[in-house]
Specification:
Length: about 260
Amino acid sequence: MTVADDQNTDALISDDAVELYRSRGFINVPGLLTPEEVAEQLEDAKRQLSREKTELWEEDEGLAMDWVPDAGLRSEVTRRLTFHPKITAVAERLAGAPLRLFKSELFRKPAGGASAPTPLHHDEPSHPIEGRPITLTAWVALVDVPVERGCMSFIPGSHKLVTPKEDDDGMSPLERWPHFAWEERTTVPMRAGDVHFHHARVLHEAGANDTDTTRVSLASIYMDAEAVYRPNFVYTYLFPDDDLGGLKPGDPVRGERFPLARSGA
Ligand SMILES: O=C(O)CCC(=O)C(=O)O
């Protein structure tokens, strides 16, 4: 297995941007998708969102978002996006190691003031995997996502301070690390076709959608190609019926459901 080399990715992302990702834990890469790709993906995403049963992320103030789980397993068009050569090349460059796709989720933040903010969190507790901590998400904007439509904000550098917790019980990051309430955030508005990448430990949140357009995005989560399965409380709570295809603790997470990011095989 080879990591995407500079030759392939220089035109997509500069060394400075890779450094910025590593120091902050996130980076937006503008215009990775063409307008034609965005149009095709958005049409398919809308079809999936109207057809599939979605999972709900509910907060006291309302619905933060709902999503189609494992969207790439349900649609060939979405599957192509999860293995998009530009996205996976940038993901491997940022991670500095070969990656596999762990899962993909098609997100919808409802329009017309019907949504709530997505609360501050990091993603690692919901990944039942261990390995070097290089797991990251590629979040593809399929519509423009200005601040008013609920774009994401990050606490730069928090991925270096957030440490994994044995037997994570789903405690919120602000309960565990109250000082983060007072840290500056960086807010990242995105155009349709932009892709931001965020580290599984970086703290992030998103605003409510106060516009008349639904916020639609695809999040693909890539993990170390050598990651192994480690069940955890949060994943089992969220997805009680998913044993990830019969994996046993300590098994390598690989096979048909978890293809290599660069080849899709
Ligand atoms: O889209 C959002 O509002 C939150 C998404 C998120 O937390 C993630 O992709 O890790």
